[in-house]
Specification:
The relative contact order is 0.11. The strands form two sheets. Strands 1-2-3 form a three-stranded antiparallel sheet, covered by helices on one side. The chain has a two-stranded antiparallel sheet with strand order 4-5. Helices cover about 70% and strands about 5% of the residues. Strand 4 and strand 5 form a beta hairpin. The N and C termini lie far apart (about 60 Å). The protein has eleven helices and five strands. With about 290 residues, it is mainly alpha-helical.
Length: about 290
């Protein structure tokens, strides 16, 4: 009962601090995402044609991760801020703990390797017709196991490294630097902070925990680009398919590109920018100040 009371009070205070437009937008986006994902999941599980094969596992995984991401976003109401050469993120929702923000980042990151799997699957289908063993592997139930393993590994890796980037309340120097440009965070201790330079020197803890996250996102992007090149080459340059089959694969390839654009513009680009920009010396004010002193 006490837990329910705390949750009710948190919900009341949270909504009280938001404008009516913010409340409608925040809850409306979550409701729409939940509705569309639920309908799509129902149709794929119950109405998908047999010919779609194991590709449905990729679609189901993508919809499930998107649903989890929408739920975590609704619970955390995250705030992301890049200012004066460093990056901080924290929650203003029902759950504002640093671990919740870690889950938010992890759930968002899952779309990148899944999109890479989509492109890899499409590349196998259109350009490896002479390798039936590989196609059969992707069409078997092993695909579902591979997707599950990929999601677990990616999510666990992201959670581990991202959680190491939480603000240490006892680190007075970093806390003072954050409060100097974010005075509204003076009393907040639960946040993720990427402050790569201190006194002109690279922060080793931040580097060893932030750079692996950047490597995960970048590797997925590289796989997508390579597969897109192979698919383009197979469909538009050296195609030996019939006209009808080639046109079908072209439509599916274009649909995949459109599917990639939304998470790329709303999650991939912002997250990679947020992680990588603080490490650029010309961006970091601390690094610039040290350079001027020398």
């Amino acid at each position: 009962m006490a837990h329910c009371r705390r949750l009710h009070n948190s919900l009341f205070e949270n909504f009280k601090a938001m404008s009516w437009l913010g409340i409608v937008t925040h809850n409306g986006i979550f409701a729409v995402a939940l509705l569309f994902n639920s309908v799509a999941l129902y149709l794929i599980v119950t109405r998908s044609r047999k010919e779609i094969g194991s590709y449905k596992y990729l679609l189901i995984a993508f919809l499930c991760t998107d649903t989890v991401f929408s739920l975590v976003h609704w619970l955390c109401r995250p705030v992301l801020s890049f200012r004066d050469g460093f990056f901080v993120s924290y929650g203003e929702g029902l759950v504002d703990a640093a671990f919740a923000m870690t889950l938010y980042g992890a759930s968002g990151s899952l779309s990148f390797p899944l999109l890479a799997c989509h492109f890899l699957y499409r590349a196998l289908v259109v350009s490896m017709s002479k390798r039936p063993a590989l196609q059969q592997l992707f069409r078997s139930k092993l695909l579902a196991a591979a997707i599950a393993a990929l999601l677990v590994m990616d999510g666990a890796t992201w959670i581990f490294f991202n959680y190491q980037l939480r603000l240490d309340p006892n680190d007075a120097a970093i806390r003072a630097k954050i409060v100097a440009t974010h005075p509204e965070l003076k009393n907040r201790t639960e946040m993720i902070a990427i402050v790569p330079f201190m006194d002109g020197k690279l922060n080793a803890k931040v580097a060893r925990n932030a750079l692996p996250l950047l490597a995960i996102a970048t590797s997925s992007f590289v796989i997508i680009v390579l597969c897109a090149w192979r698919i383009t080459n197979a469909l538009y340059v050296r195609s030996s398919m019939s006209v009808a089959l080639r046109n079908m694969h072209r439509r599916m390839f274009l649909a995949l590109i459109v599917q990639m654009l939304v998470p790329s513009l709303t999650m991939f680009a912002p997250s990679v920018t947020a992680i990588s920009l603080p490490f650029l010396p010309m961006i970091s004010s601390d690094h610039r100040a040290s350079g001027h002193e020398q």
